[in-house]
From TrEMBL:
The Polymerase/histidinol phosphatase N-terminal domain, residue ranges: 6-74
PANTHER family, alphabetized: EXONUCLEASE, POLYMERASE_HISTIDINOL PHOSPHATASE N-TERMINAL DOMAIN-CONTAINING PROTEIN
Annotated source species: Rarispira pelagica
SUPFAM superfamilies to which the protein is assigned, alphabetical: PHP domain-like
Classification via Gene3D superfamilies: Metal-dependent hydrolases
InterPro entries xrefs: PHP_dom, PHP_domain, Pol/His_phosphatase_N, Pol/histidinol_Pase-like
Protein name: PHP domain-containing protein
One Pfam family of this chain: PHP
Taxonomic lineage from the root: Bacteria, Pseudomonadati, Spirochaetota, Spirochaetia, Winmispirales
Length: 238
């Protein structure tokens, strides 16, 4: 069965913590440079830059999985991955409706830049995207699954915005996998399939952490089956 190299946690210039150099062209260039077959764009609480990246990925022969990194009521981060942009944008709408709305101050918290496929700036997102939503971890997981997506808690063993940092434990929810920061993790992963991603905020960080999956096709459904059947390989850091 074919094996594909994946990094399913990348931020663009829309995330306030993402560097302004994380525009579509640089993301694709560094994904190609690192021989990635599949990437996911997972900006904080938003999927609005996905459409700008999609045509460049198609041209480069890279599969782009539309997604978001959602901040729950408990301030746990969770990756939400979807088969289509339309589904991701529906989740974006749910996040917007539930976001704790703090006006963004670019000078203090960073720019939140919206771009088109030519990497032209089309606007700035008005609300601070690192705010939490009013959705609990359980509710977020359910909303993702209602839209046919994959729910994967981010960097569960990191000291901030993770299940262990915020809850003190990894709950037994209907997660499709868990993302670890350290590999092997010293914490209990409770038998969930483990993946490892870069959480890149700068171009040079893309693929610094990644994993391999075995699937018939490098697409959303191939990823989903690989996670269910644990056809995933992570190597020790990096």
């Amino acid at each position: 069965m074919p094996r594909f190299k994946a990094d399913l946690h990348i931020h663009s210039c829309l995330s306030p913590c993402g560097d302004l150099s994380m525009g579509p062209f640089n993301i694709v260039e560094y994904a190609k440079k690192n021989a990635l077959d599949i990437i996911a764009l997972t900006d904080h609480n938003s999927a609005l830059n996905t459409a700008a990246l999609m045509p460049l990925c198609k041209k480069a022969g890279i599969t782009l999985i539309p997604g978001l990194e959602i901040c729950t009521q408990e301030e746990v981060h969770i990756l939400a991955l979807f088969p289509t942009i339309e589904k991701a944008l529906l989740m974006d709408k749910v996040c917007t409706e539930n976001l704790v709305k703090i006006p963004n101050n670019p000078e203090k918290t960073g720019d939140q830049i919206l771009v088109n496929k030519k990497e032209e700036i089309t606007g700035e997102y008005p609300w601070y995207l690192l705010s939490s939503t009013n959705l609990s971890l359980k509710e977020t997981t359910e909303e993702i699954h209602k839209l046919g997506g994959l729910a994967i808690p981010s960097h569960i063993d990191r000291p901030t915005f993770s299940c262990y940092s915020q809850l003190g434990f990894l709950p037994e929810e209907d997660f499709d996998a868990v993302e670890v920061y350290n590999n092997p993790s010293q914490l209990d992963t409770k038998g969930y399939t483990i993946i490892k991603n870069s959480d890149a905020h700068f171009p040079e960080d893309i693929a610094r952490r990644h994993f391999f999956l075995e699937a018939e096709q490098p697409d959303f459904y191939g990823i989903k089956e690989a996670l269910v059947k644990a056809r995933v390989t992570t190597y020790p850091f990096p």
